[in-house]
Amino acid sequence: MNLFKMRRGLPDLDDLALDAIAPSTTVNPSREYLMPSVERPQQVFVRGQGSWLWDSADRAYLDFTQGRGANSLGHSPSALVSAIAEQAQALINPGFALHNRGMLSLAARLCQLTGSDQAYLLNTGTEACEAAIKLARKWGQRHRAGASRIIVASNACHGRSLATISASDSSTLTNRFEPQLPGFSHVPFNDLAALHAAVDARTVAIMLEPIQSEAGVIPATANYLKGVERLCRELGILLIFDEVQTGLGRCGQLLVEQSCDVRADIVVLGKGLGGEYRWPLYSPGALPVVSTWVS
């Protein structure tokens, strides 16, 4: 039984090719086919340049969000446009299971700039945070008697998947997708005593944003971050910094950890690199074993 034919007729490949190059006959395509996963304004935006966006009626808007922090160079910067066009002419996607020159060059440069041993390249900040969670739990299986629990901060935001929602603290999201996944303990942000009290034999890592973004741009104090690093070293657990929002020079230096003179075992970066490319970095820190078994 061909279920596809039950739904609709098979498309003609020539018609698909013509549709791909034919100009749109409507100014604003219908929104009825797009699932409303977030609230969006009614305007349909068609182009951008620098700090400005234009909608289909050619009205200009000063854009303060810049792709939720992803467009560090603004909309359609010439350097990025040229790099994308050049790469598209050479090689677009050989597949994740094959090496390519851009992948190897990017990983090497990231590790050199951050002092990391290895980089794992992914697509989204959520995927990068999930990879950090997996990495910590794998390390716990091998080096901490199967410990898997990760301590996170109240009002944190680490992504929108089931695991990262559970690692976050957003009541507007979690109530929609109960039950949450187990394995995370929430403690008040900037409270070192509460953090210390939450650590037990099941704890494998502490995961924090150096500056909480969606909570309202709330920075961790330097003393707090130094204390968390010292606590992780003394207790033999991993420190994970989620710098998806704060990394890549958005707070002065390449990483917030550099400006605070602390060192995480795993750093999750993203947003600004390539306009919307994210990855977690694995750094040696005080636990060099982290980077020796990641493949």
Q: What does the largest sheet look like? A: 7 strands, mixed
Write out the strand line-up for the largest beta sheet, numbering strands in chain order: 4-12-11-10-7-5-6
* Rounded radius of gyration (Å): 22 Å
Mean pLDDT across the residues is: 83
Beta fraction of the residues? 15-25%
The fourth-level CATH homologous superfamily of the domain at 101-291 is: Type I PLP-dependent aspartate aminotransferase-like (Major domain)
Order of helices and strands: HHEEEHHHEHEHHEHEEEHEHEE
CATH class identity of the domain at 101-291 = Alpha Beta
Strand pairing plus helix content: what structural class? alpha/beta
Helix content: 25-40%
Poorly predicted ranges (pLDDT <50, ≥5 residues)?
283-295
Q: What is the rounded distance between the termini?
A: 42 Å
Describe the global form. globular
Kindly identify the CATH topology of the domain at 101-291: Aspartate Aminotransferase, domain 2
Structure description:
The protein has helices at residues 3-7, 13-21, 66-69, 78-90, 101-114, 125-143, 162-167, 171-174, 192-198, 222-235, 256-260; strands spanning 45-49, 52-55, 60-62, 118-119, 149-153, 184-187, 203-208, 211-212, 218-219, 238-242, 266-269, 279-282. It has 295 residues and is of the alpha/beta class. It contains 11 helices and 12 strands. The radius of gyration is 22 Å and the shape is globular. The model is unreliable at 283-295 (pLDDT under 50). A hairpin with a 4-residue loop joins strand 2 (52-55) and strand 3. The chain has a domain at 101-291: Type I PLP-dependent aspartate aminotransferase-like (Major domain) (Aspartate Aminotransferase, domain 2, 3-Layer(aba) Sandwich).
